[in-house]
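User: Sequence in, structure out. Go.
Assistant: Echoing your sequence, followed by the structure tokens.
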Amino acid sequence: MGVIGKLRSVVVDCKNPRLLAAFYAEVLGGEADVEDETWAVVTDPQGHRLAFQLAPEHEPPAFPDRRGSQQFHLDIEVDDVDDAEATVLALGATRVTDAPGEDDFRVFRDPAGHTFCLVFNT
């Protein structure tokens, strides 16, 4: 089967697209383009797009959740996990301290409550 299309964006629901776009622009080193209060897009230096869509009733997932549902999460590869952790915490992330494993990753919540991991080589 041939290619039907190509991935344009990953779209994330949240209560404040502008805030979340600013957070991920700092984390990924990208540019945030805020269209209006309902839509914002971050484009990273490699051209990947992460978009944020207004969902006024958004509720972050429970994590860890014994049912295993995070809805989605991002893995962000870093060279120095301690430095990256300090930076994302200063930007408004929170650490998930009861996540299982964590031999080569650390789990956080972004300002809207979505989980993401800082992934590193041990």
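User: And one key feature?
Assistant: Residues 106 and 118 are 5 Å apart (CA to CA).
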